[in-house]
């Protein structure tokens, strides 16, 4: 059995939903369909979720909001008409939404969660209705009835472990099951949404619960590229990558995925297949636990900029137990989250996103380091870029570092920092921001052109 | 003015002390002579300091120790005879030592310090006596009279800052001043010794106090080698290196110097010249603050083994503020001093000397990391070697990393870890212990053969 999740652009119009139907029909293993609310039809469009938020705000302020309500309903109506559905489904959606809007508004966060969740919920009802109208047995499944129980944190729900066993029972139902993404129910029956983009989370939880053989995530790109197409023209696509590789790449500019969303699937060891609703025959990219790596050591190259380095030196530093820990404590006191800490004998640098360091904080921190740690020298350098090469294949591959360092040297890029040795699947080079493009291109050339 | 410090082997016999005299006579700028106690004349010999310790222990136990006392005096006597000195100097030394031995023994640490310090103190008296007998005006200077005031920690004295101003006044005295190393006086007039090897410390303090143009440190090697001669045959000598380079090299097997000893000279920006008493015309090695680096990027290669790596991974680790700091705290709770912490996105490794990790501690630490930090995976790997290339010249030298990585790859050495980016003057490669020799040889070949 497969879980297929469709994002907002895959469900933005009747035409798109027809594609989804074809995709589901084409593979009888696609028993579970997780849906978002209708998204943007074009760049200037507004997502149904945003229409719903505007609607909820209007009701919170004025106790009514006809215009906003109709904007939402008109989206569903347009879809229903395109799909030749009978209008009773629109009546059902209208009544459901009106009931929520005129319901309890005493807790604005809870009210907002319920209104937002209706976007997915009603879309699931509409899609199940449509599938049936096309002769495919399909059932809308409410997360409440299915037992998707979450913590009671509006806008940031966390799945509770007992959900998985309940969701597993869905396997025994007949037909295609259409499941709304984005929300669950608290133990006392309240709607609670996940963080934004949370339909990915629902799909991941459902895939883990029903022990799917694959979690298909349909979006609007064919696959993940091996490097940013804005830096390298027509880069290679990645057919298969491991969770670890995906995480390393997502760190630096590969915004494929809300990576927290993958945790349930990751822990249940379910592979994730990224596919394109608009081109479903394209292979896509598969995220797996283990892969064979026969295509060279590197699977992808990522880069991210806007880093700074805080350099601290003190003669005989390495005799002082606790120096590094106390330095990190000083940063933590200002809520600075750091990335790396390369160290010499008597010096250590801490690399972090420079947007965490306004001039005032910088002054305070530098002063504390001189005073409390007795440092000899403290220097802050800004505008560093981290360039990362990622691949399970580099693990025991003598010479990968040499190839990378050579490529950078030949491109005239000075390596300010190297971080290698903890992760077996990545190697990170710190370079000056101005060298980013050249560095990425040189590494791509080295590892992907032949 | 120069401060010349002579180690134990340089003063082990009358013959050696004659060489010292020639060295002092050869350069009128050598106004300050800091001396150790007589050291070993050959491999199987016993240092006077060790004879004194045995003597003190005997007196502490039995209130007497004729045999041990005579063993000490016979060393001075042999020297005095060889140098044709009148025997009143030996009487003076004997009386001084007897007075200490029969003095207050109620505080054994203090008693031990006084007995040990007499080794340097009496040697200074003897040497001043000898210089005068050769027609060179020389004066023994007591650290008490000169004002070398230290903290009252027997065996671990720390110089007090007011000492420097007092020592400066020594500049105005006439003749060569012979100053015993290894000890100072507490504020209430008690002898307190530095940590073992502390004559280097005395010389460094004196050099800072008198604002010497150079601190000459005479030992028994011509100079510092660029690499361990047990690994590479006939390696190049280092003519000049900076304090930073010296510190980085001393970290990994370059036991030139008790590097704490250099702090006073380092802070006062006084260069240190390492020279050979047995071959004083050899250039030696000079430790400076700034040097020109025209001879390639690398000045030395060092390696040290017996490291282990503690690898910790946790999905989404890098979202957790404080993870690294809490990990280091767990190690600190067991007094483990770490060296490096390379990190990936969701993993971090801590590199430290494996002799700090017995199986029991390992089990405890690993358990805490799983339990308190919720780690997914914790792995300890032992027998790593750190190979370090050091040089101020690599600072802005595009391609040094590439050259090093290439050399290692061609020697078939896998790089387990790289630490580069904090120190501008070193680059560290973690390799498996079995690869140490090949790695060092390959790097030497790359950077020193041409």
Could you characterize the architecture of this molecule?
Two copies of one chain form a homodimer. The first copy, chain A, starts with a strand and ends with a helix. The first copy, chain A, has two domains: 2-220, Acetylglutamate kinase-like (Carbamate kinase, 3-Layer(aba) Sandwich); 300-448, VC0802-like. The first copy, chain A, is built from 14 helices and 18 strands. Chain A is an alpha/beta fold and 450 residues long. In chain A, α3 packs antiparallel against α4 (88-101). At the A-B interface, α9, α11, β14, β15 and α13 of A face α9, α11, β14, β15 and α13 of B. β17 (417-420) of chain A pairs antiparallel with β17 (417-420) of chain B, so a sheet runs across the interface. Chains A, B: ATP binds at residues 5-8, 219-220. Chains A, B: One of its GO terms (molecular function) is ATP binding.
Determine the fraction of residues in helical runs of chain A and give it as a percent range.
Answer: 25-40%
What is the CATH class designation of the largest domain in chain A? Alpha Beta
Largest sheet of chain A: 8 strands, mixed
Low-confidence stretches of chain A: none
CATH superfamily of the largest domain in chain A: Acetylglutamate kinase-like
Distance between the termini of chain A: 39 Å
Q: How would you describe the shape of chain A?
A: globular
Q: Any idea what the radius of gyration of chain A is? A: 25 Å
Q: Tell me the count of domains of chain A.
A: 2
CATH architectural category of the largest domain in chain A:
3-Layer(aba) Sandwich
């Amino acid at each position: 059995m497969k879980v297929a999740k469709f994002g907002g652009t895959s469900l933005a119009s009747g035409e798109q939903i027809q594609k989804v139907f074809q995709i589901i029909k084409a593979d009888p293993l696609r028993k579970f369909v997780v849906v978002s609310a209708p998204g943007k039809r074009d760049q200037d469009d507004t997502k149904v979720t945003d229409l719903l938020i505007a609607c909820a705000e209007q009701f919170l302020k004025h106790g009514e909001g006809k215009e906003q309500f109709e904007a939402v309903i008109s989206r569903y109506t347009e879809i229903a008409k395109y799909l030749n559905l009978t209008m009773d489904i629109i009546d059902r959606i209208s009544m459901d939404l009106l009931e929520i809007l005129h319901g309890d508004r005493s807790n604005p966060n809870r009210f907002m969660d319920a209104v937002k969740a209706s976007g997915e919920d009603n879309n699931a009802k509409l899609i199940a209705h449509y599938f049936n109208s096309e002769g495919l047995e399909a059932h809308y499944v409410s997360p409440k009835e299915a037992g998707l129980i979450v913590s009671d944190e509006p806008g940031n729900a966390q799945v509770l472990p007992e959900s998985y066993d309940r969701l597993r029972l869905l396997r025994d139902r007949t037909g295609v099951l259409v499941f709304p993404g984005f929300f669950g129910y608290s133990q006392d029956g309240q709607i609670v949404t996940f963080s934004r983009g949370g339909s990915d989370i629902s799909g991941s939880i459902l895939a883990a619960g029903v022990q799917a053989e694959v979690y298909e995530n349909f979006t609007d790109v064919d696959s993940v590229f091996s490097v940013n197409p804005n830096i390298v023209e027509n880069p290679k696509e990645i057919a298969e990558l491991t969770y670890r590789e995906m995480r390393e790449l997502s760190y630096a500019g590969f915004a494929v995925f809300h990576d927290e969303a993958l945790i349930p699937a990751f822990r249940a060891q379910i592979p994730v297949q990224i596919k394109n609703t608009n081109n479903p025959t394209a292979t896509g990219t598969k995220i797996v636990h283990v892969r064979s790596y026969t295509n060279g050591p590197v699977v992808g190259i990522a880069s991210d900029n806007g880093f700074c380095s805080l350099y601290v030196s003190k003669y005989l530093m390495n005799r002082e137990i606790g120096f590094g820990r106390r330095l990190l404590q000083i940063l933590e006191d200002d809520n600075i989250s750091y990335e790396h800490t390369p160290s010499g004998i008597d010096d250590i640098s801490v690399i972090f996103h420079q947007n965490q360091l306004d001039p005032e904080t910088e002054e305070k921190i530098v002063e504390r380091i001189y005073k409390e740690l007795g440092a000899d020298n403290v220097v802050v350098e800004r505008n560093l870029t981290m360039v990362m090469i990622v691949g399970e294949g580099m693990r025991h591959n003598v010479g990968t570092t040499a190839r990378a360092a050579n490529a950078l040297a030949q491109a005239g890029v000075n390596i300010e920092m190297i971080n290698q040795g903890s992760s077996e699947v990545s190697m990170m080079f710190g370079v000056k921001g101005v060298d980013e493009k050249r560095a990425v291109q040189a590494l791509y050339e080295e590892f992907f052109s032949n």
